[in-house]
Amino acid sequence: MNLPKIHQFEGVPLGDDQQGRANWVVLEGYFKPQCGGTVCVNLIRQPVSHDFGQDCGFVEAVPSRTPYYRGDPVYIHVKAPCPPTSSPDDSAGTTSQGGDNAGQDAGQGNGGQDAGQDNGGQDAGTDAGTGTDQGASSPATTPS
């Protein structure tokens, strides 16, 4: 699939207010024909720095690859700052919001890299097998 022609959205508000949510639904409509009447891609609102338009106004759509396929993310760049979504709307399953480093920061903020060491992950199995014999071996069988 290829991006629909949506250049007329330039500067259109796509924030969390009533007007922005209504505009988001209209934007989703441009992706439905290629998907058989539903939104089959993951539209992700992504704030970016830009020189024109209002905050949270549409700048461009950027697919993760070209052509893109069902289930692929398509980043909807909007002028930063863009307030976080406070309540999901009916299309919450097909849209989400993330910043430039949302995925990276989430893992680091939760101690992802050090979690195993802090929880004793490196030493957890060091002495676990000592103190018991290795078990009895069964006799070899010969083919008949």
> Main sheet, how many strands, which sense, barrel?
4 strands, mixed
Which stretches of 5+ consecutive residues score pLDDT under 50? Answer: 86-139
Report the helical percentage. 10-25%
Strand arrangement within the widest β-sheet reads 2-3-1-4
What do you see in this structure?
By secondary structure, the protein is an alpha/beta fold. It is built from 3 helices and 4 strands; from the N terminus they run H-E-E-E-E-H-H. The protein has helices at residues 18-31, 102-109, 115-118; strands spanning 42-48, 58-63, 73-79, 95-97. A 4-stranded mixed sheet has the order 2-3-1-4, with no helix packed on it. The chain is globular and about 30 Å long.
List keywords for this structure.
alpha/beta; 4-stranded mixed sheet; 18% helix; globular
How is this structure best summarized?
This protein has 144 residues and is α/β, with parallel strands linked by helices.
Show the helix and strand layout.
Blueprint: H1 18-31, E1 42-48, E2 58-63, E3 73-79, E4 95-97, H2 102-109, H3 115-118
Parallel strand pairs: 1-3, 1-4
Antiparallel strand pairs: 2-3
